[in-house]
Amino acid sequence: MNVEHLRYPHQLDPNDQTAAYSLAVGFFDGVHKGHQAVIKNAIEKAQELNIESAVMTFDPHPSIVLGGRKEKVFYITPLQQKIDLFRKMGVQNVFVVHFTSDFAKLSPEEFIQYFIRDLNVKHVSAGFDFTFGQFGKGNMEMMKQLSNGDYGVSVINKQADEEEKISSTRIRQYLQDGDMESAARLLGRAFKVPGIVVHGDKRGRTIGFPTANIQPSEGSFIPGTGVYAVRIKIQDKWYDGVCNVGYKPTFKNPNDKQLSIEVHILDFNKNIYGEEVVVGWYKRIRSEQKFDGIESLKAQIEKDKNEAIQYFLNLS
């Protein structure tokens, strides 16, 4: 899969564009079932028209540029994970457009000229609510009107479950609530966080439950605090585990607000410091709590571990 990072003004010469594209366009945070419908449409149109499939996404999140946000934005799928998901779906090309103040000032007509026509896009697929150009003035109706027959347009209708529209906002709320099953239903897969194993306080091993301390990739959205049944991918192999997300109140000063993500990996005994891993989140077992001593904590962890084992047995 070809990945190109574009800025405005981009350096691509329309005369050098040999490939023609069927393009899915959107921010696509989460690459959830609604996004997948748009991308699948673009792939189908590419096959139909005998051209290459492509996805255009944006980085960073427009709200950072437009809203002047001081706080960090956390993504359901950080950029690299998003690109990996596009690859798994069979997309041939990805255009990552760097979202800047100048890019945000483009009129809808300019956006279409520089990022549709100049890229030799022959078909555009997007969700019904996709907007483009300064102040989001461009919509999919305008995308059609301004085509002059140069490209086709597919507008993908609202994708909903029995409750409401499938959206990144809903998924974020489910993750915040620890409702991993509902998040997975909208994503079409378990929610996953990439990260690296770093040194922690090593207290787990002293009580018989060694844990891998995970430093999540920059910008990753972390589920609400609690204890979860998870799977962790280490060197291309998945292992079952129990994860605690929180502030370890049994041991820590209540004023210490350093969030930790610790995974006790079942049937595993290797040194994996520095390894890149992926944590897949499946079910919230309980909320984080403070225990009155080591023994009661150990008893609860054993209970959590057994619950996770049972959960994955029922899943397989």
Tell me briefly what this model is.
The chain is built from 10 helices and 12 strands. With 316 residues, the chain is an alpha/beta fold.
Poorly predicted residue ranges: none
Task: Tell the overall outline.
Answer: elongated
The helix/strand order is EEHEHHEHHEHEHHEHEEEEEH
Helical content stands at 25-40%
- From the 3D structure, determine the CATH topology of the largest domain: Rossmann fold
Q: What amount of the residues lies in strands?
A: 25-35%
List the quaternary state of the chains.
single chain
Strand order of the biggest β-sheet: 1-4-3-2-5-6
The structural class is alpha/beta
CATH architecture of the largest domain: 3-Layer(aba) Sandwich
Number of strand elements: 12
Number of H/I helices: 10
What's the rounded overall pLDDT mean?
A: 91
Distance between the termini: 32 Å
CATH class identity of the largest domain: Alpha Beta
The value of Rg in angstroms is: 22 Å
CATH homologous superfamily descriptor of the largest domain: HUPs
Q: What does the largest sheet look like?
A: 6 strands, parallel
What is the number of independent domains?
2
